[in-house]
Design brief:
GO cellular component, one term: membrane
Protein name: Salutaridine reductase
Structural class: alpha/beta
GO molecular function: oxidoreductase activity
InterPro entries: NAD(P)-bd_dom_sf, SDR_fam
Helix content: 40-55%
Largest sheet: 6 strands, parallel
Shape: globular
Keywords: NADP, Oxidoreductase
Strand content: 5-15%
Order of helices and strands: HEHEHEHEHEHHHE
Distance between the termini: 19 Å
Radius of gyration: 19 Å
Length: 268
Amino acid sequence: MGSKERAKERREQRMQEISLLRTIPYSDHQRWWSSETIAVVTGANRGIGFEISRQLATHGLTVILTSRDSNVGLEAARVLQEGGLNVVFHQLDVLDHLSRKQFSDWLQQNYGGLDILVNNAGVNFNLGSDNSVEYARKVITTNYFGTKNMTEAMIPMMKPSTAGARIVNVSSRLGRLNGRRNRIEDVTLREELGNLDSLTEELIDRTVSNFLQQVEDSTWTSGGWPQTFTDYSVSKLAINAYTRLMAKVLSDRPDGHKIYINCYCRAG
């Protein structure tokens, strides 16, 4: 079995395991959501994003399924709608300011905001044992800056509630700071990124910018970066750090306006 076949098999296994979560029952006192709870899922036309949309809608939420490509997004929404699920499609390119603005205006006009944001949109051009950084800028821009763009755009639109709003950033174990393997070799940088008291958005941005500069200079192989899926790993490392930072920033919001943010990772 080749690397692409093994990767496909792992993806299918993840989808099967994720699907099992739909069978988990929730009692009335656990159920803080309803059909009026609005969940936005980015990059949801296939894969994990599609399955997350299915699960949320299966549990009775209204899901806004978004995709950069309108044709595939409409088809994905149609499949879920035919299953009796409350899913609505809207085109969204998380990297395009105008697209985000149009989506925000539409969301506000039609639903008055949102309760849940799932930042799933992302790319990875490496499979198996490949470790190319040919598309490093696209990977970093989409995975990290796209997540930041959407988070910043949606926070002002989060609906107040006693249960609090939710932001979930789909991440990866490849972005761990202190794993035994595939970590940043610079101990000082690891400590800075792991120290919540001194962690800043500027530090995270500077870290990914330094990586991209080394890619352009062809010096990244000696820069002490993760050795597996390097560009993807750096993008997820940045997402993890940004999520921790935003959790701290959002923790000061008053009751009734709470926003809880965390990362989700199945594997890889």
